[in-house]
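Sequence only, no structure available. Ideas?
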Amino acid sequence: MHLLYLDDSGNANDASQQFFVLAGVSVFERQGHWLSERLDAIAARFNPADPGSIELHGSPMLTGAKFWRSVPKAVRVEAMKDALGVLASSHVSNRAFGVAVRKAAISPRDSVDYAFEQLSSRFDQYLMRLFKGGDTQRGLIIFDKSAREAAIQNLAIGFKKNGHSSGVLRNMAEVPVFLDSRNSRLVQLADLIAYALYQKYERSNSTFFDVIGARFDSSGGIVHGLHVIDQMDGLSSSC
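Reply:
I predicted one. Tokens follow.
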């Protein structure tokens, strides 16, 4: 099975923020353990006796919040880049997916709903490409715990039964499931990927995006896994 771990960055309801991001990483099920071990090793730098107590999340690491307050910024930034580098150096089957949307460009449509539709359809298309190549594995989307859990599951059911603007979801094994990020390094990696996109589009800071930019799903020289709406007229681009 191919697992797409997703998290968001930016507040969909905060008018002071221009962008909302939903992003993450797709891994074949046997790759998950290897990636988690690499991320555990990074966390162990900060608590060798109990690396599981260290959560790798973009915003608190960059801003120095909570546990990270006592860690020098250069060390925090290095750890973030190294964590993203776990994806960058991993098996080619591991693919990043992301949507960054300027909220005003799609108003009054809900940015979370829009981003989830884009990501679920692009992941489904990726699975269809694999199917045509002989890989018949289904997919499953895994989110960080969210107050939108019921709404997102209902969207997924609707996309599967009634379709969405790009078609019908055909390759999902089940509706999205939700995990506590404290228990999943791959949800934490999804958070770091989403935060890398948020820093790029909201803050014009490409430091973290540049580590993973080449890992967004692509085929035939076309990048399918990254979708950006950054113009007020609603014109979109895939990067």
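Strands lie at 2-9, 19-28, 95-102, 139-144, 177-179, 218-219, 222-223, 226-229, 236-238.
Hope that gets you unstuck.
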